[in-house]
Design brief:
By secondary structure, the chain is of the alpha/beta class. The protein is built from ten helices and 15 strands. A hairpin with a 3-residue loop joins strand 2 and strand 3.
């Protein structure tokens, strides 16, 4: 099958690597998406095991339109009874960038009519639309003159892991947190610290990685479970194979925050994903807390203006840079922020930079190699 994995901007490369490790073939990274090929088993496996994808789509048809009516004609040619029963419900989500349509909701109505007419011609019943809890989710993508109609095998986005007990202020998307870790290069071979952990998303995702716990472990439903050809035995075998690889973390993971409420929420979320023996959460001030470890990884997502107001952002980030320079020798440190000017105020030389988005906020992930003395001496 030809498949498409949807992801966040900037994570296409690491998602392609993840899909290759899971067994995907003919992988091609695009913009916020990675196309690949694989079997039904791989579709189940990627949904259950992927940390970096938002959803997986199965394209049913692709065609070119020259006028608006071509959309209906192309949608009518799909053998919908292979995927839908007249008693099913369905919903259509659409992403439309085309001169042929001035209203983004209109193409969804056209495809809905094409599906209804398809069944009306063959049977006395037709499937109903249910936008809240459909049996089948259909994805419509129109880019200029090119139309792709797909089945959404995921439905509820994969960043909704299912372990989060509570949500603090401006929490990171779980896929974004896992992507930050993947881009950093951390392989669970040295301790990891997040000294401004907020609700604990980064340390939770790091704990799942260190323990080889699949993110799908916490989910009860995937879209493909409602497809006509769903193979429950196959999916159970994929879950069993994933659970056999669970291990005890080889390294400790630490999260801390100055806010008692954030610490309470983070601890609750760590309990929710069963990582209390792997992840330690403490109430600490990053600028005052003792620090004795000689090496490790540090990843932080400090407050920035668009999400959480902080007085004197530049001075705050300069303090972060000074603290890292004088107290974290031997570490690799990564700072993720949407405040580009304040990132420059950190005052440390970066060895890597990645451009990302947090919702609609343009962000950057900067990597710093912290060492004593000159780089030449090291």
């Amino acid at each position: 099958m030809k498949l498409i994995a949807k992801t966040l901007y900037g994570l296409e490369g690491v998602l392609a690597q993840e899909l290759e490790a899971l067994g995907a073939e003919n992988i091609k990274a695009g913009n916020r998406a990675v196309a690949f090929e694989g079997s039904k088993a791989l579709l189940y496996k990627t949904n259950y095991n992927s940390r970096l994808a938002l959803s997986f789509l199965l394209p049913l048809t692709e065609y070119t339109i020259f006028k608006p009516s071509d959309l209906y004609d192309g949608a009518s040619k799909v053998p919908w009874d292979n995927y839908l029963k007249p008693t099913d419900t369905f919903a259509i989500t659409s992403v439309v960038t085309s001169k042929h349509f001035t209203h983004s909701g209109y193409p969804s109505l056209v495809v809905k009519d094409a599906i209804a007419d398809y069944f009306r011609k063959r049977t006395s019943k037709r499937p109903d639309v249910d936008s809240r809890s459909p049996d089948i989710q259909i994805n419509l993508h129109i880019s200029h003159d090119r139309v792709t109609i797909s089945l959404d095998s995921t439905v509820m986005p994969l960043y909704k892991r299912g372990y989060r007990e509570e949500q603090g202020a401006a929490p990171l998307n779980e896929v974004l947190a896992a992507g930050i870790i993947a881009l950093s290069g951390w392989k669970a071979d040295v301790p990891l610290t997040d000294p401004m952990c907020g609700s604990g998303t980064i340390v939770a995702e790091a704990g799942l990685i260190a323990c080889n716990i699949a993110p799908g472990y916490f989910r009860r439903k995937f879209g493909f479970m409602r497809w006509n050809d769903y193979d429950d035995a196959l999916f159970r075998s994929i879950k069993y194979d994933a659970e056999k690889r669970v291990r005890k973390s080889p390294v400790p993971i630490f999260g801390s925050d100055i806010s008692p409420e954030a610490v309470r929420i983070a601890r609750s979320n760590i309990i929710g994903c069963g990582l209390t023996e792997t992840v330690t959460i403490e109430e600490k001030d990053f600028f005052l807390a003792d620090h004795s470890a000689n090496d490790g990884f540090l990843i932080m997502n400090p407050p920035y203006g668009q999400r959480i107001s902080t007085e004197s952002q530049g001075a705050f980030y300069r303090q972060i840079g000074s603290r890292l320079k004088h107290h974290y020798n031997g570490y690799k440190a990564w700072i993720f922020s949407g405040d580009m000017d304040s990132l420059q105020a950190v005052g440390l030389k970066t060895f890597k930079k990645f451009d990302l988005f947090n919702d609609n906020i343009e962000c950057r992930l900067n990597g710093y190699d912290l060492y004593q003395g000159s780089k030449k001496e090291r």
